[in-house]
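Chapter summary example.
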Amino acid sequence: MARRILCLLSLFFTLNPLSFPLHAGGLRSLRRVNGSVVETNVYQPGKSEGQPRRVVIIDIDGLPSGGTLSYFRNLPNFRRIIGQYTEAGFERAVYFRKATTIFPSVTLPGHASIFTGTYPGVHGIVGNEWFDRRSGRLINYMSLEGQWGIYINGMANQHLEVPTLYTAARQAGKRSLVGFSQYWKDADYVEKPDKEVIGYVFAERLLSNPDNNSRKMFEKYDQGMVEEIIRRLDGLRRNGKPLPDIITLYFAGADAIGHLIGVSATLGYLEDVIDPLIGKFLDKLQELDPNWLQHTLFFITSDHGRSDIPRENSKVGGELKDMVEHALLEKPLGRRDVHIALNGGMAHIYIKNRQNAQPRREVLPTANTTPAVNPNPWEAPPRFEEDILPAANALMRDEALKCYVAAVFVRGKSGYSLYWQQEKSPQLNEEQMKLIQRLNSDRSGDILLLLRNEFYFRRSCRAQVPFPVPVFCSVEDLAASAGTGSNHGSIWPSDLGVPLIVAGGNVVPGISDEPVSIVNIAQTVAWYLGFNMSWAEPRLPIKIKSYDDLPPAASDLPTLLLIDTSGSMADNNKIEQARQAALDALSEIKRNMRQGVSPPPVAVLTFSGPCSPASTRKLVDFTTNLDQVEHTLRFNLPRPGGGTPSPQAVEVALNEMKAFLNKHPNVAEGRIILLSDGQSTCGNVRPPGIYSRRWDIPVGPGANRSAGGQGQSRITFLTIGFDVAPGSEAERDLQYLASISGGKYFNAPDRRQLARTFQKFVRVFVPRSLGMASVVSSDALADFERGQQAMLQRDYQAALKAFRSFIAAEPNHPAGLYNLAQALEATDHYKGAAEYYSRYLEVAPTAPDRAEVEQRIQQMRQDYIDQFAYYLEILRSDLAYLKRYYHSLFHRRNEELAREFEGFVAEKAEFYGALPDILEVELKWLERGARDLSDSLYTLAERIGLPTFDRDAVSLLTIPIGQLEELIRRLEHYQAQYVR
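The structure predicted for these 980 residues follows.
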């Protein structure tokens, strides 16, 4: 019936066919045919070979986390998905014991977070009820009018401020089927409930026997959803179309029954109604695809938890709004100066700016004028001191409210802050405070009113609609009238806790105590299906038994932050700059995770003091809880003081990383990010005679060595010289660590470049797939695939070579241009990276990541300016070093420097040979000057060690000194004219 009523509605997003081609005939794949790559249809009904992976989201409204595990253990149809239960967990599923929802813990924001992968402050659905300042309207999704608006007009979809999971899937060529959910934007197939059913669930006659009639009604509601899904799947098969890649089943009945009767009724409904319906769906899935379990990943979850309401509290719910209004309207505000939006255990309170809210007078139109339009008096934000604080004070001082209110939050320039908290109420922990901050947006309240546990707002108002019976404002209102039931919406654990099970699809089973959220589901779906959602929160920490069948996915490395906290870090507030830069690195790691990269284990060590391993302190052991790492960096870094025991700190860090890798034999690599601002006070890190590089240890991709040449795992040092002079002893120690491990060194002279360096070090390059818009030759395809694999293995030089070859054959391929830009960025060719990112946007002007790429182009240009300036300083440092050695010859002290000088000459001869490529300057004078200087240094290197070297060195040194002076002069001129 829903299809008959709603078949003319279309909310599908129109995509650019060049960037994201869609065919109605099924999923496409690229195959080699007669030496070329062509499109083929890979869907074969009833066969698993070649069939794409699939995701099924089982979204059960209002299912609490408490007691749910024991229920799932005994549900026969859910066990077909998750397997038998043992002490180690489910046979085929990961169960997250600490999964939570968002705040407020109500239906519309919860589902928006599941299907966008963002928090309410980002996606814009801040409650089941909220006030829209732009239109001056109170939005109430749970009223009958609101429910019709959601399903008939797509109101909730229209209110979203970010794309959905289905949008990203469609852009990636995937198809989605959604059953009865409030959010379906850009899904290909949408099934909706009948409007008559929507009306009846609010009908007063249910009150005559809610335990019986309401259950039958909601059972019919959920049964209708599953029947529509099955009917759609049958229709796709009849028409020869593939099964959808994403199927969403939304069960509404459990929440409604919970409101009417209580938590136990919710669990009973799960067993008696939902489990048999899941069985019917699985029967159909197995009929269409006998091997469904191997390549179908199931997500079983809920939008929020719930709490039983003591009978004596039920009546209070209907009076609470009146009490809030009395507190606000009695003194500080007029009736038209405030809006209160109720969301179960909390309320948004919106305050008018009463200074700028006076309407303009109407002016009669004349021949040269038009009537003045009264402005919306709510558009101007309220003043903090004059408008918000008086209202907050009124709430705090109201004696009647104090029995029921847990806390009052007010919004300032930096978000929400706790203004008042009831002494008898539990103290809000750090995670709860974060959830409150993640609600902050221009749609959320100027004041948040949080109720104490087991107290809930209830809006009591009846309205007449085109039905023969009166209706209630919401299911909550209906439940309260019944005199029993449960509710949700609060910040307290029972309302925040939700079940979250990921099953099937070859997932590695187990029980996880890692804190996760429903916002992590969307990115996990994208990761499993081979695309990403750049706007979404990181994915869940799950693993697949065999990655052979998964799309190429970049991985992140275990990361150890080793931070110098010696006394010099107190100068110019450098420790605070280092703290913020490390926090920026965490932000970059989280950005990587939004692309589907798993969270890396992170540890934090600091070092300062005497020359002992004990001077290195472990602040955080390896953990994937990045919030814990963030808290430590913010609040637990030690005060700067003492010496700089760099060699001992490096040894401790190496041992910590080796111990971690030994415990995790499946992890082959780790990275140590070392920040220091000065020379070691406990001897050089470099061995005697080494300038800054070591040549006898094989490094690079595939080198089966750790730093120092020991062990089987590869440990890379990424080092930062913060406010360190180019070419100094301190810098050369850091360069040495990077060189022996195949890592990188960057000089960061200021706060901006320090933050940027951290971001570079933790950046994960995710290659784009070839896409389905082009037909390319088999040779070009081979280059592309080689480039992808090289990038995933972090062999960026090989990736650069492969993608350059691909672009030579396919100069306007968007994925090739983007991947080549990434390879150039990864090899520090920032000028070229900016050029190819720009070319990517030229051939794909409507690319969904346009804003992000434009920002990266600006970043690359600044990186090039900074890098050019740094290498000029290196050239000046090299000149000073050559002159210093030259003068030492006249004082017969050259023996002291001979071994180090030999390393310098060998290293710099290679460096100057590559200088035009390093500077990305293709000019004849630079190529000739750099080559001549390199040849002079090689000649010098050949004479070191000969008996006549002391005699010949004076004349041999004058040549490279003169050449380097000329090179510096011309590069300074070039920098002034072109590098900006």
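To summarize the output: The radius of gyration is 33 Å.
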